[in-house]
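dumping these here so i dont lose them again. two proteins, back to back, each one seq then structure tokens. dont judge the mess
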Amino acid sequence: MRVLQSGFCWPSLFKDAHTMCKSCDRCQRLGKLSRRNMMPLNPILIVDLFYVWGIDFMGLFPMSFGYSYILVGIDYVSKWVEAVPCKHNDHRVVLKFLKENIFSRFGVPKAIISDEGTHFCNKPFETLLAKYGVKHKVATPYHPQTNGQVELANNEIKNILMKVVNTNRKDCLWQKCHLPVKLEYKAWWSIKKLNMDLSKAGLKRFLDHSEMEELRNDAYINSKIVKEKLKRWHDQLISRKNFQNGQRVLLYDSKLHIFPGKLKSRWIGPFTIHQVHSNRVVELLNSNNIGSFKVNDHCLKPFVESFSRDKEEFILLDPHQA
């Protein structure tokens, strides 16, 4: 403003003023993530039942008979939910849950989706999955929507538990209450007529399986059509981002949603991009350039370097002598 008010002028005056304002470090660290900063939608389409499971811990809850957590698993096709109360949230509980509640009852899946918690990302867990040939897909902490199916199941369980506990939310008997999956999801198949011939019962069961397979195929086709329409509608509202290796970016501090603070900057950095991976995953170098970590690019924005303040000398002619 002082330059403009002083009457100075040069050909790139307005362009330089725009660049200087855009490169303000403090201004770049303000603002929130909007819908236009979201990632392109990548729907997960699974063909067969019990091929992909999402698992997650719920808690910490008020202790009930020594139990403080709930371990939840959900199948991505049938939306079948398995949930067990747990006293601890360590890897031993996860291994026992997979062996007793998933592998032995529904077969070995093709993939398991979880977050980056230490109870899921550890050597015994990876050894078990490698033994059975299961692929482990990890959701980054900046993008929990990757495991969104289990997050929806968590909300359903929380809402139902809130109905069975006292109004003060300190009911210590929630563990003795039947988990919602036992009341809402599990419906065991049974023969209505007990005096039916065994051979006819077997044929009836075979026909039910054949009909169920057709219904699953129809459901898969309908799900694919709906998700393609949703992706087209979602992606037309977002802005495209193209990051390059070596580029400097700012990272949105998602912890402010949990621990809000007055006058705190929402963006941290700048960080240097080490490598750009597929599915909008970006690997950033730490501030000391030692080690790296991965984030989704929806929480990144380019960092504009500060306006050059190098002084250059110009020889001005005296207008009376010109």
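---- next one ----
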Amino acid sequence: MLSAVPPSTLARTLRRAEEALSKTLEKYSPARISWPSPSHQLELAKLVEALEPLLKPH
């Protein structure tokens, strides 16, 4: 229990909050999660390697 809240109540409340947030942000594009394309990921990795050579994979 967290702060005298039963786990089932906490889980239900969090699930409902997540659903409400998801529904609210559904059509708000700045809030969307997106990943760079594989080619852009390679470009970003090269930039990181240039700044932090110890992070380069072996």
